[in-house]
Write a structure and sequence with these properties.
Length: about 425
């Protein structure tokens, strides 16, 4: 309710949707109470996937999606702009500042109103069909028994896919599986794919922002592999990638201009929008397609993967990816984080490399691999990741990065 009051004082018209979890309705009415008490107006989009919200946002100033996309035992809300991009840091700071401020509510005569809005799902479905084109593929789809079942199965059928759907009954109280897209939660989907020769498997989280894929043999594709296949097929000229993007992904984009972003998904839509990029994706199954919106959009990604599978074979594409060797290491530190950062920066800058990004720490790209050094102030640890096209090269990159970190930490301690 307090979040609702804060948002209602900063935005006059707020679009709200929610997933099917029982607690989402409770949270929805609490947020609505706060917004309207503050004098703001609510546009109720009902139970809707997050990627469709921009298509129902006419007349709104911001959007709220209620319901954790990956958990059943807790709830959350996501604030976004009407183009689908999540609130940036300055917008979130304004919300947090509003939560801490004293709130003087308007008189009863100025209480806001709630009205229903419709049509968002249908407009979204039509736009994706236009964007993706024809799909000639057998697909087994798992909708997590949540709001993705209102649009994804029909969308895939309209695209031309031969569809089998599971967990596509809208029952947020008793879902057929946990909504998170880890492989252990998707065993039923894998079995269905293996029992349906020539099919691929596609699964979504509860609000349609994230994608998981199984190839024709029922093998789970990690998100980096799925991202590499999609990028290789789409060939975007300008693309947003996180600093932990794998070699398989960057090798697929050798002719593309890469804008590096922080890990995670919060800044993905904003980066694509502000940079005028063609596409964005990360290593956790999140994608942004500006031809649709700047929302995180697993459903469009799933439709594109099905189109690719219909034109070729996912398992063959996976086997065609060059092998690589990745490792992780961490070094604890105590003391001034800024001094350690300066020492690491100076040593990294002295290296010979192909390119370097400081979007989050230091990602150093070399001829046959890369390493990432990032500091965590929260647990006073420096985290190192290195990946090479062969085991020896990957180990040498890890050695270079580790030497830089240890010398910086030791220098400060001394």
């Amino acid at each position: 309710m307090e979040v609702g009051k804060t948002v209602g004082m900063q935005y006059n018209n707020v679009l709200i949707s929610r997933n099917l979890r029982p607690s989402s309705a409770l949270a929805f009415y609490a947020v609505c109470a706060g917004i309207t008490a503050a004098g703001g107006n609510v546009r109720d989009a009902g139970m809707m996937i997050a990627p469709a919200m921009p298509f129902a946002s006419k007349g709104s100033e911001c959007c709220i999606m209620i319901g954790s996309p990956d958990k059943t035992d807790e709830n959350s809300m996501f604030l976004s702009n009407i183009d689908g991009s999540l609130f940036n840091e300055s917008q979130m700071r304004a919300v947090y500042s509003g939560l801490e401020a004293e709130k003087e509510l308007p008189p009863y005569s100025n209480v806001g109103r709630i009205r229903k809005v419709t049509g968002g799902l249908e407009k979204y479905r039509s736009k994706v069909i236009e964007y993706v084109g024809n799909v000639d593929c057998r697909v087994v789809m798992d909708c997590a028994s949540d709001c993705t079942c209102f649009v994804a199965p029909r969308l895939m059928s309209d695209l031309g896919a031969d569809l089998t759907s599971i967990n596509s009954h809208p029952d947020g109280r008793s879902p057929g599986r946990p909504p998170a897209l880890e492989e252990q939660n998707l065993k039923s989907l894998s079995k269905f794919v293996r029992a349906s020769p020539g099919s691929i498997g596609i699964a979504f989280n509860s609000n349609g922002t994230r994608l998981a894929v199984f190839d024709e043999e029922g093998n789970y594709l990690n998100s980096g592999t799925a991202l590499a296949i999609l990028m290789s097929n789409m060939k975007p000229g300008k693309v947003a990638l996180p600093v932990d993007a794998s070699l398989a992904v960057t090798d697929a984009l050798q002719s593309s201009e890469i804008t590096w972003t922080r890990r995670g998904h919060r800044s993905l839509g904003e980066t694509v929008r502000t940079g005028g990029l063609d596409m964005g994706g990360n290593m956790n199954g999140y994608f942004v397609f500006p031809g649709i919106s700047y929302s995180l959009d697993g459903i469009t990604a799933g439709a594109l993967m099905a189109r690719i599978a219909g034109e070729t074979n996912l398992s063959q594409l996976v086997s065609g990816l060059a092998p690589s060797f990745k490792s992780d290491f961490s070094v604890p530190y105590h003391g001034d984080m800024n001094e350690i950062s300066k020492s690491i920066h100076d040593q990294v800058a002295a290296l010979e490399y192909d390119s370097m990004s400081e979007a989050e720490g230091w990602r150093v790209n070399m001829e046959s691999g890369w390493f990432l050094i990032r500091l965590s102030e929260k647990d006073e640890t420096v985290y190192i990741t290195a990946e090479g096209k062969d085991k020896m090269y990957g180990a040498s990159l890890m050695g270079i990065a580790t030497d830089i970190v240890k010398s910086s930490v030791k220098k400060l301690s001394a």
